[in-house]
Amino acid sequence: MNTDFPKAPLPLPRAEDVTEELAALEGPPVIPAGLRRTLFPVITKEDVFKMLLSTRVDPAKVVADFAEAYREYVGAAHALPTASGTSSLHLALVGAGVRPGDEVVVPAFTFIATAQAVVAAGAIPVFADIEPDTYCLDPAAAERAVTERTRAIMPVHVHGLPADLTALRAVADRHGLALVEDASHAHSATFDGRVAGSLGDAAGQSLMADKNFPVGGEGGIAFFATADAHARAVEYLERHGIDYGMSWIVAAFGASQLERLPYYDEIRARNAARLAEVLGETGLFSAPHVPEGRTHAYNMYRIGLHPDAVGLGDLPVHAVKEVVHELLVAEGVPAREWQNTPIPCHIPFRRREGFGGGYPFSLNPAAARDYAPEDFPVTLSMLSSTLVLCRELRSPVEYERLERYGHAFAKVARRPDAIRKLVGGREFPLPHAKAARLG
Amino acid sequence: MDHFDTAIALSRVLTSGVIMSIERNDRELPALERLLRKVSGRTQVVLVNSATAGLHSALAGLRLGHGDEVVAPALPDAHRRFLDWLGVRVREDGTPAFAYVSPTPADVDRLGPLLTTTAGAPAVVLDLTGLGFGPAAAVLFDDEDAWRRAERLKIFGTFDLRTMWTQAETDEGVGGVQFNYRLSPLVAACVRMALTTQGARA
Ligand SMILES: Cc1ncc(COP(=O)(O)O)c(C=O)c1O
Asked: Which among A101, B63, B125, B127 is most buried, taking Cβ atoms within 10 Å?
């Protein structure tokens, strides 16, 4: 049987793990090779049973029931299930009234789909920098990017932390703009007690199976605050013959996963809090910042590096980051960069071919700008000084694995001497000087 | 479709734990690609999440985009509207630039012969939605460059998300709009089951 059931358990962590030689220097890795895989999503008998039952139900009803159950969970007024997060963002923009040639302000740091969804809607993404502590769209930078052709602002709840929606709403209101959420990382995350996806005039959200709330492979959902916005999106699909429909198979899996989402959310939050405790003691590393009034969904967990706290303040932070990254990976922690280049500097926004012949950028040449990485200093600083964990805090991560991740960070932070040595004499190009990475 | 066969295919994929199209260990999408290559005799297959994604990918493969003209085969009206949305003008005269096949469950044991009628077309859009597992399609090519452009459209310009996440300056087909047109392995498994258990063979 081809199964994902683990072949062997991870041994219990030991305090000595932290003081042994670094794995990169021939010591024993904190997480032994062969035991490093993080299973995700958790697929249970409930998922199989629900799936089998669904084979006997009208496919349209399976999808509609799923969308209705999740809409209610989120507390949004209207929902439209889709084949992907990208298509849900496209429809959220259309529902919010974005039309060809309009400008939409988006953060320079996100997944490329956020900006490509704007292009799909025939509009032009205008990029603004992020805040240094939340990594989400900076309301002041967003406001500076507004022109008379701006129709909407689309913040991204980066990694699962809601953007500053109070300030962004104020900007939108001052300029008569729609506020459209990209809630793709932020399932169950809250802002003033309201769930991400229900806060904007419209929202799009990926439900692909590597998100905290996974459907059966690939899927998404658009939310709308008004019946008009919802109707606009539905009519658009019909008028243009676009099939963005979600498969009933994908929806059936989502329906059973939804019932367990609060459980998984709780485990993820607990794991994030535990790791924050450990990181807080290292000096070198810091946990994500969560402002008052918000909850973080931790689809990803971005860890800050502070070389000065361990006597490495004279070294370039991106060099320290790169070496620390190598050391962590050698210990068995699959830390990642998750992006290395501001999105406006990715090839599609430098070449701006769009659908062909430069459409829709050709509709609004003033908005189709050549950006330089230095236009986004906060994004660059974040890319140079942070590392990311993705699946590693999600259920079914066992307590012993979580503790071992903590040990690996503690072990690396104890060795500024080794970090300094490994940085010495090597060239370290800035992250954005390398080929752009999507994730 | 046979419910037992569908149930087995779904249970098998769920038990494997791999339901993501960008998972390196996914075996379902490559298996369906292999089957379609065998049935069609084409060398290249792009799997996508709807017929309109298939049309878009076929045109991208053929280097046709906004402002271009295409001689399209007979298409349902909704698909015509979709080409219009892409900014591609449809002409009636001449040899179609691609073929379009939309099998129903009753067609699966004659899919090979059906596809024979598309021989010579530079691309084939095979709409698999009619098989009953939700929106799904495949685009068939013989040209590797066309295949690469279509693959890139569907996964944000990365040549192969299963192994690689970078976009390089030298890559062709990464300068424009990009979508997520990826098909779920669960849907692919059911499509393959329908095509094999009901007798569609090369
Ligand atoms: C922030 C963000 N927006 C949008 C998307 C696009 O979602 P999907 O891959 O489901 O199309 C992603 C996806 O992965 C994402 O991280």
From this structure: B125
